[in-house]
Amino acid sequence: MSKGSKLPLNESLLFLKNAALNPKQIAYVFPSTRWLIRAIADSSQLQSAKHIVELGPGTGGTTKGFLSQMTEDAELIAVDINKDFIAYLKKTISDKRLSPVLNGAQNLKEIIANKGWDHADIIISGIPFSTLPKTVAKEIMQSIYDNTKPGGLFVAYQFRDRVGQLATPLFGQATTCWVFKNFPPMQIFIWKKS
Ligand SMILES: C[S@@+](CC[C@H](N)C(=O)[O-])C[C@H]1O[C@@H](n2cnc3c(N)ncnc32)[C@H](O)[C@@H]1O
User: Fold this and answer.
1) How far, in Å, CA of 32 to CA of 57, rounded?
2) Could you tell me which residues come within 8 angstroms of residue 118 by beta carbon, excluding any fewer than 6 positions away?
3) Cβ atoms of residues 124 and 66 within 8 Å
4) CATH class of 4-192
5) Which of 39, 58, 152, 191 falls between 20 and 30 A from 176, CA-CA?
6) 88 CB less than 6 Å from ligand 1?
7) pTM of the full structure
8) What is the domain partition of the chain in residue ranges?
9) 61 lines ligand 1 (CB under 6 A)
10) Contact, 147 vs 122, CB < 8 A?
């Protein structure tokens, strides 16, 4: 799992450079801390899932945290629209359970079908919904809802609650908690699809 403030310098610089170049897509200048990663992984019931999707892995701190909690026969698709991040994941994480995919979260149906799955058991998102254009944010949320299996979970970590405004009409009420040992502090939202 990521060591929070002890991230490798090249990983921090890659994140910072891309955050400066794509502020609306990345929104934060620091990757998630180990405290936040642990809290997201603990909230996601990863040990009980086989087909997991991560949206917005960035430089992969969250990805490594999720892999460390998954069973040996579970699989994780990590989807990001940033080609530098996907190349970095491919170079730095050697785990046969992980499939990094360069694509947009709007295209989950195609991404999941390419893997031979019908649905995801759990979708975890770090995508900053509050800084995306409204139509894109809505399209991504519909894609998440449509591709989560009934009984499955959608977990999001966000500073603002725009994700709640988008997801609650589809999924119903979320369970939430705040993690303050992160910059900025993050709220974790957990929805169960009925
Ligand atoms: C705040 S970063 C999260 C990085 C990492 N998971 C962490 O917590 O440190 C948000 C990520 O969402 C990605 N992203 C933004 N829009 C996206 C989209 N439409 N589809 C997939 N990924 C997207 C960005 O490229 C970025 O890697």
Assistant:
1) 10
2) 112, 149
3) yes
4) alpha beta
5) 58
6) no
7) 0.95
8) 4-192
9) yes
10) no
